[in-house]
Every structure is written in structure tokens, then in C-alpha cells.
Specification:
Elements (H helix, E strand, L loop, with lengths): L33 E14 L9 E14 L3 E5 L6 H8 L7 E6 L2 E2 L8 H7 E4 L13 H11 L4 H14 L4 H4 L9 H13 L5 E5 L7 H18 L2 E5 L3 H7 L2 E6 L2 E7 H6 L4 H8 L40 H5 L4 E4 L2 E7 L19
Parallel strand pairs: 3-8, 3-9, 6-7, 7-8
Antiparallel strand pairs: 1-2, 1-4, 4-5, 9-10, 10-12, 11-12
Helix pairs in contact: 3-4, 3-6, 4-6, 6-7
Bound molecules: iron/sulfur cluster.
Iron/sulfur cluster (SF4) binds next to loops.
């Protein structure tokens, strides 16, 4: 896998291209433009306290998350269960409302969802979920399922059915054999191909794949991943690929973003993250992945314990209770998102990466 030169995961403080554009006047120009820019995305879920408690408590599901995804690239989002990666995806897809933050899709702000073309955005962004069976209507045939979306958006019935058969063929499913079958007659891998075909029926620009291959056998998983790579190249698709499987993320991603307890802790080009991870959490995750290559084995301290309670996250650095390098400054001050070494695209949130932090082991020890 070669390192891409035009990748960017922007820190919050960087100017956001396209921010000033009004809906309908966006620059739809070159491939270096980000397709999606997310800034300060936040979502807290209220928790009901006891009958006598007046204290308002919230789960910090997503806290001030910022990133951008260039057109035609894949951003892999990794982290333990409950780190906020799926909530981030649902907020971007407007399946739930964010408490704060701004999203810019192809130069158009989605801050007030009513002011942009609702239908156009719904077509441009599609999701493929982990549970391939629950995503399909058991009473519709495969061809009807794929044709349903285009029909809702005004396509003629005959044209929509022809599109469905074409997409079946393109996703490796023989139309004459599968068009009239029902979801329960298919395997998990076949159903996931149908879900991909259904997403393609909208001619989307961004597809969010939320643990989409997690439930598949390894051989089927590899076939579906290769299909996704081919479709991305053919149609200049942009992917947001959410997974807990670091092997899969390494294979498919151009950029990687690591999340911990609702926050981004590290981001950058995939080869940088996998070869010179800067954050102790990322290094611990990578050290847990078996490698056949002795040059790519990480000796980082392993992860211990469970993530802290997201209702009451630790002060300062949220990872400090599990970090082998934690010191007093990690509890008193939250680390900032900073560039790692000389690579402007590689960013991490850790006092070890900041020579001015006051951490005894700092002074760019992790920098390349
Ligand atoms: Fe560990 Fe401190 Fe860095 Fe947090 S800021 S990851 S506790 S060294």
C-alpha cells in the first residue's frame, strides 16, 4: 500500500476550505478538495438520575471531533467499542442530531439541514451497516430492494429494475439467479453485496461503512473488501470505514483516525500511523495485533483495564488511567492536538508529543 501525498486530517485550528461558501455556490473542483469537513462535532446523551437527584448527567459520546476526508479517499475510524465511532457516523448521516459542531459536505454547510437540498444529500451519502439481514426488507425481492430507492426519487419502474439488475451483476451476483430471491435465501456475504448494490443505486459520493465486513468469514470479507476497492476506483467514491479490525483498516484506508472515549487521539496517513504511531493508545492497539513481519512488531505496553465511565470522564487526558506514561500533568491539563514530528498530516493528542507540556519524557520523544 503506497502512502498518499494529498491526504489531510485537519486539526480544529486550521482554516476549513469551503466554509465561506453558500449553499449552491460551492467549489466542486479538483480531487484535492475535501468532500467532508467535520468541525467540533459533539453529542451528549442525557442519563436519567435517581428520583431524588437533581444532578443532570450526560454520556460524553462524541466530544469536539474534527476531521476532513478528501474526495476519493478512505478514512478508517478505529477504537474500542464505545469510543464514539459509530455515533460520529450517525451524526454525519443525520440519523441523529448533533449538540454542536459544523459539517461541510462538498463545500455546502449542513449546519441547518433544512437549507440544503435534503434529497440531494440523502442520495450523496449512503450507509452500509454490520447487520446485513436487518438492513433488508424481508418481504421484498432483491431486485425490488435495490430499485426501491431510485423509484422513491422519481425513476421509472422499468429503468429502476434495469439499474437493479446491472448493479447486481456489478457486485458479483448473477441477476437471473438472484433478482427474484428474498434476503433469507442468501448468505451473509451475498446480503452485504446487496446492501452495497442498494447504496450504489443512489449514485452516492460518500459511503459510510459501519463494521460492514465484521460479521463475515475471512475469505468472504476479503472478497467484499476487494469489491469495495474496485468500486471506489471506478466511481471515485469516498469511504468512511468504521472498524475495530486493524488489519482490515490497514488494507482499505488511506487515512486513519483513532478515537478514545468520544475524542480523536491520533490521525494521519495510514502508513504513518501503522509504522510510527505517536499516541500510547494507538501503540497499545497496534501491539495487540499479531504480525508475521518481525520489522512491524510493536513493543508498546499492552492495554489494561476497561475504558472509564463516559458519564464522568477523567480530567486532563482521558486515557491517563490506562496509560503507562501518565504523570501529574496528564491529570491537570488536557493535551492539545499537535503535529507529530515533521509530518503536517500526522497529528496526536498527547503531552509526550509536546516539548512544552511539562511531561518529564516529552521533548518530542515520539516525534519522527
Ligand atoms: Fe499518556 Fe499523558 Fe499522553 Fe495521556 S497525555 S496519553 S496520560 S502520556
Amino acid at each position: 500500500m503506497t502512502m498518499q501525498q494529498d491526504l489531510s486530517v485537519s486539526p480544529v485550528s486550521q482554516p476549513l476550505p469551503g466554509t465561506g461558501n453558500m449553499p449552491g455556490t460551492a467549489d466542486r473542483g479538483g480531487p484535492a478538495q475535501p468532500l467532508l469537513i467535520v468541525e467540533g462535532l459533539t453529542k451528549h446523551f442525557p442519563v436519567r438520575g435517581s428520583m431524588f437527584s437533581r444532578e443532570k448527567r450526560v454520556v460524553h459520546a462524541v466530544d469536539n471531533v474534527s476531521f476532513s476526508v478528501p474526495k476519493g479517499k478512505t478514512l478508517g475510524i478505529v477504537g474500542e467499542s464505545g469510543c464514539g465511532k459509530s455515533t460520529t457516523a450517525r451524526l454525519i448521516a443525520h440519523l441523529m442530531k448533533a449538540d454542536a459542531g459544523e459539517m461541510i459536505f462538498d463545500g455546502e454547510s449542513l449546519e441547518d439541514f433544512r437549507t440544503v437540498s435534503h434529497k440531494e444529500f440523502r442520495r450523496s451519502l449512503q450507509m452500509v451497516f454490520q447487520d446485513s439481514f436487518a438492513s433488508l426488507n424481508p418481504r421484498m425481492t432483491i431486485a425490488e430492494t435495490i430499485a426501491f430507492g431510485p423509484r422513491v426519487h422519481g425513476m421509472a419502474a422499468g429503468e429502476a429494475m434495469k439499474l437493479a439488475r446491472d448493479l447486481l451483476a456489478r457486485t458479483g451476483m448473477e441477476p437471473n439467479q438472484f433478482a427474484n430471491r428474498y434476503p433469507h435465501e442468501l448468505s451473509g456475504g451475498q446480503r452485504q453485496r446487496i446492501n452495497i448494490a442498494r447504496a450504489l443505486a443512489f449514485d452516492p459520493r460518500l459511503i459510510i461503512l459501519d463494521e460492514s465486513v465484521a460479521a463475515l468469514d475471512k475469505s468472504v470479507q476479503a472478497q467484499v473488501l476487494n469489491l469495495l476497492q474496485e468500486l471506489k476506483a471506478e466511481r471515485n467514491l469516498t469511504y468512511l470505514f468504521i472498524s475495530h479490525d486493524l488489519h482490515v483498516v490497514h488494507y482499505i484506508s488511506d487515512l486513519v483516525m483513532v478515537m478514545y472515549l468520544g475524542q480523536v487521539v491520533e490521525s494521519g496517513p495510514v502508513e504513518r500511523i501503522y509504522s510510527t504511531a505517536a499516541h500510547p493508545y494507538t501503540r497499545a492497539l497496534l501491539s495487540a495485533v499479531p504480525s508475521m513481519d518481525p520489522d512491524h512488531r510493536t513493543e508498546a505496553p499492552p492495554l489494561s483495564g476497561d475504558p472509564p465511565n463516559p458519564i464522568n470522564p477523567p480530567s486532563g487526558c482521558r486515557f491517563r488511567d490506562r496509560c503507562a506514561f501518565a504523570e501529574g500533568v496528564c491529570a491537570s491539563r488536557a493535551p492539545a492536538l499537535m503535529q507529530v514530528g515533521k509530518d503536517a498530516e500526522h497529528l496526536a493528542v498527547c503531552h509526550l508529543n509536546d516539548p512544552t507540556s511539562g511531561h518529564s519524557a516529552a521533548s518530542g520523544r515520539l516525534s519522527a
